Structures are given as C-alpha cells and as structure tokens.
C-alpha cells in the first residue's frame, strides 16, 4: 500500500473510532491537522499517523513504528501544531490516542502488537488524553477576557 493510501486509511479509521465514542469530528487535512474533534465546545486538533505491522530487525518483536514529525526535514510536532496524536494500526483498525506533548522530542514512536489489543483501547486512551488536556471536566485553562 502506498504511503498516501496508508495515511488516508488511517484518517478514516481514526474518524470512525472517534464517532463510535460519540465524539463529533471531521477530516480536514489542514497543515499539521488531519481531524478536528468537537469536545464540550472545544476544538481538538488531531494529527493521525498510520502504520502496518512490521518485523523489527535483530529478532525483536513485531510492532508498529510511527514518525510524529512533519515536513521534509522531519520536524517534531508540538502543541503549536496539534493537540493530540492518533497512532493507527492499519491491519487491526485500532487507534491509540496521546497528547502531543508526550512525544517529548522523539523522532519515532513504537508500539508492540499487543498494545493495540485492549478491547477498550480507544475509549481508554481518548479519556486519558482528554483528562490530560483538562477537557474531561468541561473546562480548559484559558486566560480570562479583559
């Protein structure tokens, strides 16, 4: 599968999983944002990365590798670019959500096959991410109007 098709498929899988969770969202593909979700009247910017199962070198376990970067120079995504990373395992149509701040300067993010097998994976990682972003309680740290 070509990279463009893998990315597009990842976006559709991610959007479908969000909709199943009751999260209103749209695929938008605008700069470093692939999906916008509306959570309690707050817009959440999501960057989707998709991968298929790979056999790692030197006898390591099967897993998935994602590159939380953008641009030809592999610039690392930050909260200025998006709020949430969505790591999609194409072959099993599963998603792990994580706040973009958790990338912490890494050029790649790896997950093993069992990481995508939890029945409540999307619900748990989305809830954890929203709690991290302080949205699960319906408020976000915003400067008061002057």
Question: What attributes does this structure have?
Answer:
146 residues, alpha+beta, Trna Endonuclease, Chain: A, domain 1, five-stranded mixed beta sheet, three-stranded antiparallel beta sheet, 2 helices, globular
Residue fraction in strands: 25-35%
The CATH class name reads: Alpha Beta
* Gyration radius, rounded: 15 Å
Domain count: 1
**Mean pLDDT, nearest integer?**
87
Report how far the terminal alpha carbons are from each other: 52 Å
Q: Helical region count?
A: 2
Summarize the structure.
The chain has helices at residues 3-20, 121-132, and strands spanning 24-30, 33-39, 42-51, 54-55, 62-66, 69-70, 75-76, 84-89, 94-99, 109-112. The model is unreliable at 139-146 (pLDDT under 50). The chain is an alpha+beta fold.
Question: What does the model show?
Answer:
The protein is of the alpha+beta class and 146 residues long. It has one domain (3-132): Trna Endonuclease, Chain: A, domain 1, CATH 3.40.1350. Helix content is 21%, strand content 35%. It contains 2 helices and 10 strands; from the N terminus they run αββββββββββα. The chain has a 5-stranded mixed sheet. The chain is globular, with a radius of gyration of 15 Å. Mean pLDDT is 87; it is low at 139-146.
